Amino acid sequence: MDLRAMLKAMKFTNALYPELKDAGAFTTNNYVDTLGLSGLLFVMQMGAIDIGFGSTLATTPPLIEECDTTDGSYTAVSSAALSACPGASDDGKMYGVFVDLAKSHKRYMRIQAPTAGDGTAGVAASSVAIGFPSDQMPHNAAGMGLAELIEA
Fold this sequence. Notes:
Elements: H1 3-9, E1 11-21, E2 24-25, E3 32-33, E4 37-49, H2 55-58, E5 63-67, E6 75-81, E7 94-100, E8 108-111, E9 115-116, E10 123-133, H3 141-144, E11 148-151
Parallel strand pairs: 7-11
Antiparallel strand pairs: 1-10, 2-9, 3-8, 4-7, 4-10, 5-6, 5-8
């Protein structure tokens, strides 16, 4: 498949809108419908970070959740979390979590919308989800320009 055909077949979703947060959850947390996809890559972009980016005031790294319906109870995807919370020295870095949909997964996925900041500092971040059709898969972290790539 040539690059033009591959790009036309990919699905892009704005998972977390670009936002500056301080002591609160991100406003938008869009789910991705994985129907017809073989893989899903969540790319998290960090802007300026004064404190850790993760849940419960940066004690749990960002992770991917799944659900059978769009508005049901989302649960964590096994092995789909960053190894640590991005912190104050990670300004401008990008992180990725790739989910192989050939494994048993539920239809709808989203990034666990982390709580950012502690009331005195802030985190600027966003996330894009890229869905790959059945005959396309992403390469390694370095080739994608990511600081870390987790595969689940």
